[in-house]
Write a structure and sequence with these properties.
Layout: E1 3-12, H1 16-19, E2 38-41, E3 52-56, E4 62-71, E5 76-83, E6 87-97, E7 103-113, H2 116-124, H3 127-147
Length: 154
């Protein structure tokens, strides 16, 4: 099988302490209206290493997420998402201060195909597509920070 990795950087008008929680199962609800995780462990949805939750993708297939690392002191998080019959994705989030009020967020996706369906998905997962997609995150987060509400996503 094959693996593809892409990384890009966005900027958030908040501190790293305010920014990293926006990239958690609960935090993404704040800026993505369609985001609706089901918490498996812990049921509270409290971000922590070993947290497990489920989402349903656009093809109506359940995906399982695991928090591998959640380190507020270092402002980093790593998640693994398993999409049965398709792929396994590792997501790395690194927040670094730009100044007292802004944060640079490096978002890296490493996708490993598990099947022919997964291989087909990798073909459309180009660097250009990835950069455009992650830029929509920046826009959605900025909308939330300015208006206090989630926006429609994708």
């Amino acid at each position: 099988m094959q693996q593809v990795s892409h990384s890009t950087t966005i900027h958030v008008n908040a501190t790293p302490d305010e920014t990293l929680p926006l990239f958690t199962a609960a935090g993404e609800r704040l800026w993505i209206k369609e985001w609706d995780p089901t918490y498996i462990y812990p049921e509270s949805g409290e971000p922590q290493q070993g947290m497990i939750w489920k989402t349903t993708n656009h093809a109506n297939i359940d995906e399982i997420w695991v928090t591998v690392t959640y380190d507020m002191a270092r402002h980093i998080a790593t998640y693994v998402k398993w999409s049965p019959e398709s792929n396994v994705t590792r997501i790395d989030i690194r927040c670094r201060p730009i100044d007292d009020a802004r944060t640079q967020v490096q978002v890296t996706y490493t996708v490993t195909a598990l099947s022919e369906e997964g291989l087909a998905g990798l073909k459309s997962f180009t660097k250009e597509h990835y950069d455009r997609w992650i830029l929509t995150w920046e826009q959605a987060i900025e909308h939330y920070l300015q208006h206090g509400e989630a926006s429609h996503f994708h």
